[in-house]
Amino acid sequence: xxxxxxxxxxxxxxxxxxxxxxxxxxxxxxxxxxxxxxxxxxxxxxxxxxxxxxxxxxxxxxxxxxxxxxxxxxxxxxxxxxxxxxxxxxxxxxxxxxxxxxxxxxxxxxxxxxxxxxxxxxxxxxxxxxxxxxxxxxxxxxxxxxxxxxxxxxxxxxxxxxxxxxxxxxxxxxxxxxxxxxxxxxxxxxxxxxxxxxxxxxxxxxxxxxxxxxxxxxxxxxxxxxxxxxxxxxxxxxxxxxxxxxxxxxxxxxxxxxxxxxxxxxxxxxxxxxxxxxxxxxxxxxxxxxxxxxxxxxxxxxxxxxxxxxxxxxxxxxxxxxxxxxxxxxxxxxxxxxxxxxxxxxxxxxxxxxxxxxxxxxxxxxxxxxxxxxxxxxxxxxxxxxxxx
Length: 389
Ligand SMILES: Cc1ncc(COP(=O)(O)O)c(C=O)c1O
Ligand code: FES
Fold this sequence. Notes:
By secondary structure, this protein is of the alpha/beta class.
């Protein structure tokens, strides 16, 4: 069965051009970039090129780019660094809807004596900047807020948040794992100190990430040892994946217009048709700024896992929240924080598109999903009650 892959916020296909770029760095050009000889030197040159390509996508300088092993590592490293830079400061601010890479770490830190504030979001999943302004103080070491939410695609007003935070002397980090490559970012005109990204969300392989660290931002490494990454992340570089990341960023720059145009149009059509064909649906975060590739649709009186299984039988891959929380019976922490009623939160499905999504993929969902929902609703006691109304 040919898969209809609409789960690109969980992970993306490695672009063939990215794979071709990295391929020689396994069996042929396998030198260590730190070696003095020509064989390592030629790899170092490619790693430098990758750094410049990532920097160009972000509007950053090459020496502001630190390669890591994943988005999670970048998030962890940013927060830990800030706490080491300001040992006297004991307050951290984040939000209730962050990815576990940030949220779990902050909750662990709160058990170790740090004061952690998790900002609320409104019904659209949006932040209240006045709340941030009120809560950030001289004791705040770092504020970490995501650029765009992985479940709903909701985009936070990150530049405004960063400016508020910088006025109070705290460091500002953003998890931009879902934003990079989908919406334009420009670090040259930004107040952000640190920013995380992850290769596998933008058509590079899994297991490579980046932490952007603004020039002049004090930084303490999480991994110590060798002098790699100018002492900011020890460990022999994952050269092939770094080179892949560079190529993926170069391609992302070229595809940004596709995201804003063709991908957004497909997403909008999917949303329009599904809400017209299926009664009692709503778009989570539908009233605010969102990523062009993501839709989270809540359907009352059905259960997300059931929908996913029946879609999967038709070859359609979607998700009922974040990959890490599906499998548990708890509704998503993101939808709960938004106050989505329990009956809708459980029936929420996320479709996330990419440059490889076609109109046929969208047509398939529009054809297959409405009968699946009617069938599930006719089986559920709540659904039957609703259908009989
Ligand atoms: C918003 C967000 N942050 C962080 C991560 C973690 O990235 P990685 O899988 O590279 O560790 C993900 C992906 O699951 C994500 O969606
Ligand atoms: S680990 Fe990726 S969505 Fe949670």
